[in-house]
């Protein structure tokens, strides 16, 4: 997985609360067996009409936010079912960071396991980012090592993250890669077991 340390990007203001995993990636797109290719279906029914045409007024259809790596939303992001396809779609679309006041627990953990940084900020801080981001494109600097989100005017928001997940994201490790850290000890143990 690609490590995360610093992400500097225009924020995409998704001004919605209680965004559930079926809205993130609808059930009819879950037939793929790979982890890739889901980005084109992200928020599909909000982005496209029944004929597949882009809907006016939806933030992901606004060219000002093309290439954005930071998604900002309201509380309870990722609620609903536990489908891991939701973070796969977010990552495949290009978002590396999601900022919200709160998340559904399973979604939050699925983000971390798929190398997406889910940041919890205070509701008033998120409100400020959404308001600014809707008014004009706003470039944020996210620094995982320092645990900061910095606005263009120098305003700094600090966030918490479990040290275990911080190390995993900074190194781009998933749980399998973490196992390889102990490859020498595993090999030694296996040789000991073979002799026993």
TrEMBL record:
Taxonomic path? Bacteria, Bacillati, Bacillota, Bacilli, Bacillales
* Transmembrane helix keyword on record: no
EC numbers, comma separated: 4.2.1.33
The highest taxon in the source lineage is Bacteria
Ordered alphabetically, the record's keywords are: Amino-acid biosynthesis, Branched-chain amino acid biosynthesis, Leucine biosynthesis, Lyase
* NCBIfam families in alphabetical order: leuD (TIGR00171), PRK01641.1 (NF002458)
UniProt pathway: Amino-acid biosynthesis; L-leucine biosynthesis; L-leucine from 3-methyl-2-oxobutanoate: step 2/4
**Protein name stated in the entry:** 3-isopropylmalate dehydratase small subunit
Residues in Aconitase A/isopropylmalate dehydratase small subunit swivel domain copies: 2-123
Enumerate the Gene Ontology biological process terms: L-leucine biosynthetic process
- Family annotation (HAMAP family): LeuD_type1 (MF_01031)
Question: Which GO MF term does the entry hold, naming one?
Answer: 3-isopropylmalate dehydratase activity
- SUPFAM superfamilies the UniProt entry points to: LeuD/IlvD-like
Q: Which gene encodes it?
A: leuD1
The UniProt family comment states: Belongs to the LeuD family. LeuD type 1 subfamily.
Q: Which organism is it from?
A: Bhargavaea cecembensis DSE10
The record's Pfam families line, in alphabetical order, gives: Aconitase_C
